[in-house]
Amino acid sequence: MEDRSHKVLLALVMLFLFAVIVLQYVCPGTECQLLRLRALSPAAAADPYRAEDETPARFVPRFNFSADDLLRRVDFNIKGDDLIVFLHIQKTGGTTFGRHLVRNIQLEQPCECRAGQKKCTCHRPGKRETWLFSRFSTGWSCGLHADWTELTNCVPSVVDSKKEVRLRPSRNFYYITILRDPVSRYLSEWRHVQRGATWKASLHVCDGRSPTTEELPSCYTGDDWSGCSLQEFMDCPYNLANNRQVRMLSDLSLVGCYNLSVMPEEQRNKVLLDSAKENLKRMAFFGLTEFQRKTQYLFEKTFNMNFISPFTQYNSTRASSVEIDKQTQQRIEALNFLDVELYDYAKDLFLQRYQYMRQKEHQEARRKRQEQRKILREKQAHLREQGENGSSTDYTGNVERWRR
């Protein structure tokens, strides 16, 4: 019985060696060697983008988007006048992403970041002009955590403030942002405020002015709201943490800015949500905190810029350490019902874009493999033809010599 198993094993080894020899003979080139290495490597079997968030390989889309909505590839000219503008929403992981932008991108002229300095110098190659408008490159030039309404009105004048209007270049402004699950984001903001954060320096400029104290009352008296309980945080009707992502991504001028008397609340909410969805869809890029590697992948494909080190998925945050009961979670979701709807929309669009881009990538890889195989077949056919012609010529020459 043992002899038989040894014979079977020997036969399998001989069969494998024979297959390797045949493959070397049929396809001796470098291309095939690379294909064999990729097939044997562990990375080929595991998709690095799939396991980070336990998302199914193929999810079921809820929204219908056109191919133009899904295909995001911009012709970003870093040597020209194009500008990336990062809209940084509080407690969405924007600080981490902002650091990636200035410290982790492969560039001909990397950003210059000096120890002890909050801002980095991100100049275009050969120019003393920035290609990135963000907290860590230009600072809060349009106000602390400026929103869509502020940035779209402020950025063009800030970057070209020293030039006359007629001499200002025709720039492409590529807006980007990061979103986060509304409940997690809300809890994270509460913890941040509890530690003393206020964001008092935010301007909230809309239609040329900041809101009055009547339009935007404060939730607390004193210097800050440190030590506030979650219940107190939820009970303040003026809390800007409520539906923050929708408010910061919408065009507030459509609803009379912070004047709540301009239109009924239900109509105002619909206008804000529709505006936020449309602006998000039209942005050059947006990522999701819960999908770090996919966020990295889509940014790289959109701007044709590669990061040096891969993004890390952090599943443990201050917000995740907060234990809340089901009733409290439902209360937070109710306070952020617009953000919940926006996030569902954004997540669906994000995953559809990721899936679409991966399919495009696989199709392109398949096309290249087919071209390589075609070239290989043509090369082999040419070699066979040369061999047959050579044999025929040798035979004819020998016949002529025999006749002599």
TrEMBL record:
Main subcellular location of this protein, as a coarse class: membrane
Organism (species): Cyanoderma ruficeps (rufous-capped babbler)
PANTHER family, sorted: HEPARAN SULFATE 6-O-SULFOTRANSFERASE 3, HEPARAN-SULFATE 6-O-SULFOTRANSFERASE 2
Name under which the protein is recorded: Heparan-sulfate 6-O-sulfotransferase
EC numbers: 2.8.2.-
Subcellular localization(s) per the UniProt record: Membrane
Domain of life: Eukaryota
Family classification: Belongs to the sulfotransferase 6 family.
Enzyme class: transferase
